Amino acid sequence: MTNSAMTMEEQQRHAHILVVDDLPANVELLLGMLELAGFENVSSTTDPFEGLAMAERQLPDLVLLDYRMPGLDGPGFIGRLRSLLDADMPPVLVVTAQNDDASRRRALEAGARDYVTKPYAFWELEARSRNLLELHLLNKAQRQQTELLERLVKQRTAELERTRAEIITRLCSAGEFRDEDTGQHVTRIGRMAGLLASLAKLPPPLSAKIASAAPLHDIGKIGIPDRVLLKPGKLDEDEWAIMKGHARIGQQLLAGSGLPLLDLASEIAGTHHERWDGSGYPNGLAGTDIPVSGRIVAICDVFDALLSPRPYKRAWAVDDVVTYMREIAGAHLDPDLTRLFIDNLDRMLAIRAELAD
After folding, report:
1. How many Cβ atoms from other residues are within 10 Å of residue 176's Cβ?
2. pLDDT digits 0-9 by tens, 40-93
3. Rounded Cα gap, residues 213 and 255, in angstroms
4. Alpha-carbon gap, residue 298 to 281, rounded angstroms
5. Could you give the residue ranges of the DSSP H alpha helices within the chain?
6. Pick from 115, 94, 117, 130: which is nearest to 19 by CA?
7. Ramachandran region, residue 278 (left: φ > 0; alpha: ψ -120 to 50; beta: rest)
């Protein structure tokens, strides 16, 4: 039977009570009274240090504790117990002959939840024990419920992340059906863009989103006619005008979902062909008016595209690509981000090697 299915009386009966008192006669008396009260899970010791070890091995739900003990008194025991158990600290009921205000205050300030002085009535000890147990068990149940809800939220979040990743993968696959020459290009762009975002010290959540959204930068090409998209030679002026439309198509295709990841992908699709000097498309944005996501993907896209062979061009050498990127930094590409990319060239090349076509 689970705790949630048991009544409070049943939970109290099975609760673990630890008795710590240096006098065996006192321990025997408390054990007898607790047994008469119906408590079934009681352990005891006359050594406070052994009591700490017992509490660490099996978490108690209530501790009945003497005040004056050789080697470690009640307040000292409470302090060490709190250090050992932290959030699992059980309530402590001090049962003692110390009836002075100073002792009472010291025990309560140390963390005791209640204080009973000898001689005490059996009914009073039972009532105080049950009151403390009820509060503790309710709090423990609440913590367990909170932990369960947190686990469920994490699981649901992970499921949503998997769903979003699957959407991205499927959309990328749709684009690759139209343009098989891209191979692993879109995957590499995602990895490199996420790395560059991280190197630029963007917030980690944003860097991760850029990595996930960047592979959709060219999704708009699914709206470009085959005669243009798949033409093996150089595009003429009219064909180039059609090809440039893929940025706006991609932006529109991904916009309006209300999902932050797809909204970012829409931003990237619509801005990764803008240029630092304002000569890019589709909107002629310049400088920092271009979203940082678009500027990052533009750099990764140029780098990877130049290193990749296409029917209409050979693959460039790495040194030639780096020289060219330095030349267009400040005109086509964000100069600071380009410099950062080149400074970490080995890491970018490692991504290309790992995800080679």
Report:
1. 18
2. 999 999 999 999 999 999 999 999 999 999 999 999 999 999 999 998 999 999
3. 13
4. 12
5. 8-14, 24-36, 48-57, 74-85, 101-110, 122-178, 185-199, 204-213, 226-229, 237-254, 260-271, 292-307, 318-328, 335-343, 345-354
6. 94
7. left
* Bridge partners for 41 per DSSP: 16
Tokens at 97, concatenated: 């002959």
CB atoms < 10 A from the CB of 123, how many? 9
Q: Cβ-count burial of 47 within 10 angstroms (0-12 exposed, 13-18 middle, 19+ buried)?
A: middle
How many angstroms separate the CA atoms of 275 and 271, rounded?
9
Binned at pLDDT 50, 70 and 90, residue 29 comes out as: very high
Q: Are strands 114-117 and 41-45 parallel, antiparallel or unpaired?
A: unpaired
Structure tokens at 219: 């999704």
φ and ψ at 256, to 5 degrees?
Answer: 85, 5
**Taking each helix axis from N to C terminus, what angle separates 24-36 and 122-178, rounded to the nearest 10 degrees?**
70
Nearest-CA neighbor of 107 among 135, 70, 65, 71?
A: 65
**Closest C-alpha among 187, 195, 209 to residue 261:** 209
What are the tokens at 36?
Answer: 């008469």
**At 325, is the pLDDT very low, low, confident or very high (cuts 50, 70, 90)?**
very high
Q: How far is CA 103 from CA 68, 96, 128, 192, 295, in A?
A: 10, 10, 19, 66, 69
Task: Give the three-class secondary structure for 64.
Answer: strand
Model pTM score: 0.60
Spatial distance between the Cα atoms of 169 and 163, rounded to a whole number of angstroms: 10
Phi, psi of 98 (to 5 degrees): -75, 105
Whether the ω angle into residue 203 lies within 30 degrees of 0, i.e. cis, is: no
